[in-house]
Amino acid sequence: MVRIRNLHFGYSKKHPLFQALNLSLDRGHIYGLLGKNGAGKTTLLKNIVGLAFPWQGTCLIDEQPAAARKPAVLEDLFFLPEEVYAPALTAEQFVAHTAGFYPRFSTEQLYEYLEELEVPRGQKLNKFSHGQQKKFMIAFALAANTGLLVLDEPTNGLDIPSKVQFRKILASALSEERCMVISTHQVRDLESLIDTVVVVHNREIVLNHDIDQLAERLTFARGAAAEAPGAFYQGASVGGPVAIRPNEAGAYSRVDLELLFNALTSGDATALHTYLNQPRHESVQ
Ligand SMILES: Nc1ncnc2c1ncn2[C@@H]1O[C@H](COP(=O)(O)OP(=O)(O)OP(=O)(O)O)[C@@H](O)[C@H]1O
Questions:
Q1: Which terminus has fewer CB within 10 Å in the chain: N or C?
Q2: Residues in contact with ligand 1 (CB, 6 Å cut-off)
Q3: Given ligand 1 and candidates 41, 156, 185, which is best to mutate, with the most ligand atoms within 8 Å of its CB?
Q4: For ligand 1, atom 16, which residue shows the shortest CA distance?
Q5: Which atom of ligand 1 is nearest to the CA of 44?
């Protein structure tokens, strides 16, 4: 659905942000776009949705250049920025003004999501708290039923119960027809939600892997097992030592996104990269 080829982009000619970046995103998946503050997540999302224009290369949505902002592309695309704008309108008024841009918008779904996220009815949106405004816009974005849904840091400002509800609702809204992209620097917020991890670091995509593939290839070890030699990365957590190792025993271990993110963005991740990028049969003895 999204094809980025040879993307070159920056805000000033002296400081290019992306150089020859490639990325493909398909329907039927929830992608987690992870990166530290300033890594370039928002900028990449803006290029994806056509709000920033590549210096070179292409960002296509269903084979159409995103930057052309064609109506047929826009009606099947929802981009929720990190800072939402809530006008002085009630939910009903907002729907009356905006839903018409999205042919598959469902008012019924919107109210279901609002109820699940415990967003009050009747009040004007600009009188909501920041978290309530964010939850309203998340519900609206989902109810738009677009093929491409891009959420920039959606969990910022949400309390813990709302983050749980957010994950539940998003998982239930995924279908074979939809491609969802969620950016965050709060890695744990996306655990048990995303099926593919994309990590941006130092202006490059340093990882683009399916969670199942990662679980198959890697072991996320804790305690004594984390101290054995041969780890790609070793760190410390409140519960003791932690490490990422090749999965030699073939046992399944839950992917620890935070540990993986730390491994890729701090220190030397060359061995981990090489291992993950080599075909599986080459790494199995
Ligand atoms: N409009 C702009 N003009 C100039 N530079 C910008 C602009 N927007 C972002 N930048 C710069 O581009 C880089 C990437 O910013 P971006 O907002 O894409 O990062 P991010 O990964 O989304 O960060 P965060 O997690 O803090 O939101 C940063 O160095 C930032 O200062």
A1: C
A2: 11, 17, 35, 37-43, 185
A3: 41
A4: 40
A5: 18
* Closest ligand 1 atom, residue 46 Cα: 18
116 and 19 share one domain: yes
Regarding whether 119 and 43 lie in a shared domain, the answer is: yes
The residue whose CA has the least distance to atom 29 of ligand 1 is: 38
Same domain? 164 vs 46: yes
ipTM exceeding 0.95, yes/no: yes
- Contact partners, residue 138, CB within 8 Å, separation at least 6: 80, 113, 117, 151, 154, 166, 169
Helical residues (DSSP H) of 107-156, grouped into ranges: 107-116, 130-143
145 in the same domain as 240? no
pLDDT digits (tens, 9 = 90+) for 27-55: 999 999 999 888 899 999 999 999 999 99
Q: What mean pLDDT value characterizes the chain?
A: 91
Sequence-separated (6 or more) residues with CB below 8 Å from residue 250: none
Model-level pTM?
A: 0.92
Atom of ligand 1 nearest to the CA of 185: 25
Q: Give tens-digit pLDDT for 247-279.
A: 887 777 789 998 999 999 987 788 888 888 877
